[in-house]
């Protein structure tokens, strides 16, 4: 992975309180896992950014190295890698994800 790709990923991760690297967009997720991740974040009512890895092959490969995690989607909160959709689902079901977001002081979407 090039330093440029690494820098772009780091900039995106650090530029958003909550960031989801996904396939597609929040309005048009391109895989079931990305769709589930979006549903969880929307249900929790937090503001989040997203990066469509299908639009940029360098980012699609680079994010896997950046996090040392082989699959997409990938969730970051305050610059920290949280996990993929399975981990998000587990954390959501136990209430851990809501707690993590609350402790991080993440902005809620305006009602």
Automatic annotation (TrEMBL):
Cell division as a keyword of this entry, yes or no, is no
Q: Which gene encodes it?
A: grxD
Q: What is this protein called?
A: Glutaredoxin
Glutaredoxin domain span: 18-82
Q: What is the species listed in this Swiss-Prot or TrEMBL entry?
A: Sphingomonas chungangi
Q: Which InterPro entries match?
A: Glutaredoxin, GRX_PICOT-like, Monothiol_GRX, Monothiol_GRX-rel, Thioredoxin-like_sf
Matches recorded under Pfam families: Glutaredoxin (PF00462)
Q: Which UniProt keywords apply?
A: 2Fe-2S, Iron, Iron-sulfur, Metal-binding, Redox-active center
Question: Under the GO molecular function aspect, what terms does this record hold?
Answer: 2 iron, 2 sulfur cluster binding; disulfide oxidoreductase activity; metal ion binding
**Sites where the protein binds [2Fe-2S] cluster:** 31
Can you tell me which family this protein belongs to?
Answer: Belongs to the glutaredoxin family. Monothiol subfamily.
């Amino acid at each position: 992975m090039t330093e440029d790709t690494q820098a772009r990923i780091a900039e995106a991760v650090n530029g958003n309180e909550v960031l989801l690297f996904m396939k597609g967009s929040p309005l048009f997720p391109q895989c079931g896992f990305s769709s589930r991740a979006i549903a969880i974040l929307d249900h929790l009512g937090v503001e989040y950014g997203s990066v469509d890895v299908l639009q940029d092959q360098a980012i699609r490969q680079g994010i896997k190295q950046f996090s040392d995690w082989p699959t997409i989607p990938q969730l970051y909160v305050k610059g920290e890698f949280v996990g993929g959709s399975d981990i998000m689902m587990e954390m959501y079901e136990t209430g851990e994800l809501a707690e993590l977001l609350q402790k991080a002081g993440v902005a809620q979407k305006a009602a």
